[in-house]
Design brief:
The chain has 279 residues and is an alpha+beta fold. The longest helix is centred in the first third of the chain and has 21 residues. α4 crosses α5.
C-alpha cells in the first residue's frame, strides 16, 4: 500500500515538474526601458545671398550664416562648419557655443564672403555642420561672377547717345514725339538741366518738380536765348503761394477751395500745377 501511494506521489511530482518546465519564463525584455535612446540633435542653416558681381570686383562684405537648434536637446560644445570648394572665406568661433532648443546663433558667430579674384562663372559650396563628430546640418550657398565687359557703366552726361540728337541745336529742331521714341535720352547731355533745388522743411515738392521741368523746357526750346542754367531761376514758392493764397476767382476757378492755407506747409498733388497754370 505504502509503495503504491509513494509511486503515485512520484508520478504526480514528475508530471508537475514537466508542466512547469514547459511554461516559458517571463519575457524580461518586454518590460525593460530602452536606456540607449537619446533626443534627436539637428540644426537648420540659414545662408545669405549675394548679388551677382563682375570680374575685377572688390570682395563683398561678409554676411552671417545663422544656425538654429531644431532638435530636442541642448547643444553645448564645438560646432564646426566647413565649406566644400575654395570659393568662400569662412569665419567661425574658436570656442564652444550653447544653443537651447529653438535658439539661434548670433549674427557675428559664423560669417561667409566670396573670395576675390575669381573668373566669370557660377560658384556653389556645400556648408556642412558637425557636432560631437556627427553631421547635424547641411546647406548650399552660391554666387555668380559675370564677365567684366557685361557690367553696366554710367553714361557720360556730356556725351549723347548715338541715336539721340548730338547737340542742343539739333535737339531744338527735333520733334519731341521722336525724342520720346529713343531707347535712351538724357537731358544732361545738352546742358539744359539746372542745379538741384533744396525744398528744405517745406511741404511743396509738388511745386519743385514742375518748376524744374519748366526750366528745362525753356532751355530746350530756346525761347529765351539769354537764359542758361546759371541765371534762370523760377520760384517753387511763388507757385505754392499762388495756389493756396489767391483770392476768389470771379470766373469760379477757386470755388470750393480753401485759399487761406499755409502755403509753405500745405501738400498738393499732380493736378494742382497744370490746373493753376492753365488758368
Amino acid at each position: 500500500m505504502i509503495k503504491r501511494q509513494l509511486s503515485k506521489f512520484l508520478c504526480v511530482f514528475q508530471a508537475f515538474c514537466i508542466i512547469t518546465a514547459a511554461i516559458p519564463a517571463a519575457a524580461a525584455e518586454e518590460v525593460l526601458i530602452d536606456q540607449t535612446s537619446k533626443a534627436v540633435q539637428s540644426l537648420s542653416i540659414s545662408v545669405p545671398s549675394f548679388s551677382q558681381i563682375f570680374e575685377g570686383y572688390q570682395q563683398p562684405e561678409a554676411k552671417p550664416v545663422i544656425l538654429r537648434n531644431t532638435g530636442e536637446s541642448y547643444i553645448y560644445g564645438k560646432v564646426n562648419m566647413s565649406l566644400s570648394g575654395d570659393y568662400f572665406e569662412l569665419t567661425q568661433p574658436s570656442g564652444n557655443i550653447a544653443l537651447a532648443p529653438g535658439a539661434e546663433t548670433d549674427s557675428r558667430n559664423y560669417t561667409v564672403a566670396p573670395k576675390t579674384g575669381l573668373a566669370a562663372g557660377e560658384y556653389t559650396s556645400i556648408i556642412t555642420v558637425t557636432y560631437s563628430n556627427e553631421k547635424i546640418g547641411e546647406a548650399v550657398i552660391s554666387f555668380t561672377v559675370k564677365p567684366a565687359d557685361e557690367e553696366w557703366q554710367e553714361p557720360d552726361p556730356n556725351i549723347p547717345d548715338a541715336k539721340a540728337p548730338q547737340s542742343l541745336a539739333e535737339l531744338q529742331n527735333t520733334n519731341p514725339s521722336e525724342v520720346a521714341k529713343l531707347p535712351r535720352f538724357d537731358s544732361r547731355n545738352y546742358g539744359i538741366v539746372p542745379p538741384v533745388k533744396d525744398q528744405g522743411s517745406s511741404n511743396i515738392c509738388w511745386c519743385y518738380a514742375p518748376i524744374t521741368a519748366s526750366e528745362i523746357s525753356i532751355h530746350r526750346s530756346g525761347i529765351d536765348t539769354n537764359a542758361n542754367t546759371e541765371n534762370l531761376r523760377l520760384s517753387p514758392e511763388a507757385l505754392a503761394r499762388a495756389r493756396h493764397s489767391r483770392g476768389a476767382d470771379p470766373l469760379g476757378n477757386t470755388k470750393g477751395e480753401n485759399t487761406g492755407l499755409d502755403w509753405y506747409s500745405s501738400s498738393g498733388n499732380i493736378d494742382y500745377t497744370p490746373t493753376l497754370l492753365s488758368q
